[in-house]
Design goal:
Length: 102
């Protein structure tokens, strides 16, 4: 019984690290993987470096995506596409609330 009490703080620390650090990180990685898998031609995207564009083609050989920007066509790795920024770009615009007049 005494041995279990000695290891209890260590076990609790591991549980806290798992539930607050490791598990959310695995969940986010899974979401990004699904996002990249579901990309299709015509999707508007934002890369992690901030480049905005529209997907025009895929390069399976290089695991890349070819996007069209204002400057022309550019090839990026699929891993450089930002899930969060692309979803913000594609979500519908929220209506602006009018201020009440007194």
């Amino acid at each position: 019984m005494e041995q279990i009490q000695q290891f209890l703080p260590l076990i609790l620390m591991f549980a806290v690290v798992y539930f607050f650090m490791i598990r959310p990180q695995m969940k986010k990685a899974k979401q990004e993987k699904n996002f990249i898998k579901e990309l299709k031609r015509g999707d508007r995207i934002v890369t992690k470096s901030g480049m905005h564009g529209k997907i025009i083609d895929f390069s399976d050989k290089n695991n890349a995506v070819i996007i069209e920007t204002g400057a022309g066509k550019i090839t990026f790795d699929k891993s450089s596409i930002s899930n969060e920024l692309s979803q913000k770009l594609n979500e519908p615009a929220k209506p602006v609330k009018e201020e009440k007049k007194k």
